[in-house]
Amino acid sequence: VDSLAQARDKEMHEATRRMLSVLLRQIDGFEQEKRVVVIAATNRRQDLDPALISRFDSSITFGLPDQKTREEIAAQYARHLNSQELATLSVVTEGMTGRDLRDVCQQAERHWASKLIRGQI
Predict the structure, then answer these.
(1) Which of 29, 41, 42, 63 is the most exposed place for a label (fewest CB within 10 A)?
(2) Taking every annotated instance into account, which residue ranges of this chain make up the domain ATPase AAA-type core (predicted)?
(3) Each residue of 38-69: b (16+ CB within 10 Å) or e?
(4) pLDDT tens, 11-44?
């Protein structure tokens, strides 16, 4: 919802303001029917319009992955690493999101494959 429901300000483009207004009215209509569940996701809650946030009954926050979860994510994307290397990677990637870790692993896999192809491994 980030692109549709940014907090309104003086610099907001009129078309964006109208889209937000339509979205808010649609959500209001859903609430009356009671048979529709609206789920929205964002990485930037602080940037959302307060009127949108107020229309949701609950909010679930997903934090950053812990060390064990980072190790599990790395194991999925960096298959050439042994268990000790995965453990080390999980420590040095503290503060990274799952996507950040995936990107790092994919880049490392490409680098490793390139070295393998050139016979450097």
Answers:
(1) 63
(2) 1-63
(3) eebeeeeeeebbeebbebeeeeeeeeebeeee
(4) 666 777 787 788 888 888 775 667 778 888 888 8
